[in-house]
Amino acid sequence: MKPPSFDYLAPTTVSEAVQALAVRHGARLLAGGQSLVPAMNLRLARPDCLIDINRITGLCQLEVKEGYLRMGARVTHHAVACSTLVAGVSPVIAKTAAGIAHDAIRRRGTVCGSLAHADPAAQWPLIAQLFAAQFDLQSVRGQRRVSVDGFFQGVYQTAIEPDEMLIQVGFQVSQPGERSSVRWFSRRHGDFMIGAVGMRLSLSSDGRIDTLAVVGGGFEPQPSELSMIFMPLRGHRPDREAFQVLIEQAAKLEYLADLRASAYYRRALLQRLLLQCFDDCGRAV
Ligand SMILES: Cc1cc2nc3c(=O)[nH]c(=O)nc-3n(C[C@H](O)[C@H](O)[C@H](O)COP(=O)(O)OP(=O)(O)OC[C@H]3O[C@@H](n4cnc5c(N)ncnc54)[C@H](O)[C@@H]3O)c2cc1C
Fold it and tell me: Which of 86, 219, 222, 276 is the most buried (most CB within 10 A)?
């Protein structure tokens, strides 16, 4: 399949890119093209202009600043997976990036492109929710920072306005001693996942749960924030049986159902992944 015809622009600065977005209402940004181009080939997306951001310099930064691991719009899954910085400050993020799709896709696909695309079956929205992401958006109207709460608005829907570009995302850096785990299930290696769970757990000096963040991905249109359900565990020592009791409440979601898995299947998957994450974090501490 070939895409419908389109104009092609290759700006060299963010300012040029957002100026083009402001005047070309049918335009779309092109990052790695790993989601957009297949959608165009299938005629599911018909932008009349592509604004290629790959010649813009200064969007490849991968750095820790003000407690956040910040990644520019051109940072690929591969760059994250290979980064010693990421492996040091958030090993679970490096591990997750290394498990996305296949090598060829990881080398082209970008973190920001995946977040802007907001596919419920993608790993980055889950990571964003788990690590309290901040999104830096730019347009000709100026720059604004949006927190993860409210960023994801449904399947393929985000708070990014049509004339805005996501120039950088930041993920909260893990606290010393914090344990984290991300588990997902896909039918074959490299396939989009059917469901995923992410967890961050920290203990106080006497071994009691201090903080516990739990997020589901792929079960609902946007990442499922499950932390409140497990609040009763705070202040207690990690207890698998107590965790299992609370899992029942987490199971009461509005599950997605599609050709890959029924809502019933996803419900059972969520329960299994939750327990795996809890075991990972419990073992690690
Ligand atoms: C066979 C295959 C398997 C895959 N498997 C997985 C998987 O298992 N897990 C997974 O998470 N992903 C998977 N992907 C998707 C892949 O990770 C993509 O790279 C990612 O979803 C999109 O990133 P991109 O840079 O390619 O974005 P593009 O395809 O270039 O763009 C996607 C959308 O985001 C917009 N966009 C891009 N960058 C910006 C920006 N900076 N600001 C605003 N809007 C922007 C574009 O306009 C477009 O609408 C797979 C893809 C393929 C082809």
Answer: 219
